[in-house]
Amino acid sequence: MAGTVRSEQEFIAHVQSGGVVEAGDWMPEGYRRAVIRFIEMHANSEYMGALLERDWIARAPTLERRIAITSKVQDEVGHAQHLYCLLEDLGRPRAEVLSDLLEGRSRYNSFFHYPTASWADVGIIAWLSDAASIIAQKALLQTSYGPYRRILPKICWEEAFHVVHGREIMRTLLSGTRQQRDMAQEALTRWWPRLIYFHGPPTPAEKDADLTIWKLKGRPNEDMRQEFLRLYIPKIHKWGLQLPDPQLSFDEPSQRWRYTQADWEQVRLIGRGQGPASQAQLEIRRRAMEDNRWVAETLAPVPPAQEASR
Prior knowledge:
By secondary structure, the chain is mostly helical. The protein is built from 13 helices and 2 strands. The chain has a two-stranded antiparallel ribbon with strand order 1-2. Strand 1 and strand 2 (about 255-260) form a beta hairpin. Helix 5 (about 120-140) runs parallel beside helix 7 and helix 5 packs across helix 9 (about 220-240). GO terms for molecular function: phenylacetyl-CoA 1,2-epoxidase activity. One of its GO terms (biological process) is phenylacetate catabolic process.
């Protein structure tokens, strides 16, 4: 597309006809900002989501489970690595992105602002939140921004393995002792309300108009949430687990699930760093970055002027 599009009208015609946009192509400034916002939110969520499970590596009940969760955490951090590279190609330096994250100026999914309390949490997060992630990411597989489109299949493929990992943790707990089954139910009870708002608030079509025209958003939030509910509520019930929502019911005429609506203003505040574990998680990242700063400084390229003076 480079050199052929020089106006927003031509750009819209290009993406609407199935055209792909590359990092070096001309693009409207609003489009560039929207792509950066999408990818940065995704990258930060992968990066911070890994923290929920990292602490359970040493506490996994068996060596096999320890290896599996270590691999999962590595995958999540690897996803963030790929996505931060895409941001750098768009002129958003990684150091700037991480600084904004650690100082609370940028966001990540509200789901990841909570602490984990038991091994069952690891199962719920992998089984259900990664399933919700796949639904959101598959909705972007035909996004108009080429570099993002090309990395998403790899991320979805790896997330599918994470879902299996979580499902097997839950299967083991639910076939175990009464204490293990109670642990699984308690974890689901705590995390279910957060899963309901995983895909974000229902948004009117006009609010997403530009994103739709630019082919940056494939599906409305509520459609993705309904797909998640349609796929996973039967699985949860089949395993004998109870969902903690007295308003949860299936409406036959509309073929949609009804549920207790989230306090979306509270969800927004959580996403801005006011969640139960937001600051503790960010402080861990700050300490890790400070403790390992010497590595980055050692590996940093030497400026040409200093190289010449050696």
